[in-house]
Amino acid sequence: MKKSIITVSTIGALAALALIGYARRTPARVSSESPSAAPVTQAAQEPKAPDSARPEPEPAPPLAQAPVLSTPASVSAAATNPRLEQSLLNQAVDTLVSSQTTYAQKQEAWKQLRQGGKLDQAIAELQQRMANDPRAAEYPATLGQAYLQKCGTIQDVREQGILALQADKLFDSALSLDASNWEARFTKAVALSYWPANMNKGDEVIQQFQALIQQQETVSPQPQFADSYVWLGDQYQKSGRNDDARSVWQRGASLFPNNEKLQNKLASAQ
Question: Is the dihedral of CA 163, 165, 167, 169 positive or negative?
Answer without folding.
Answer: negative
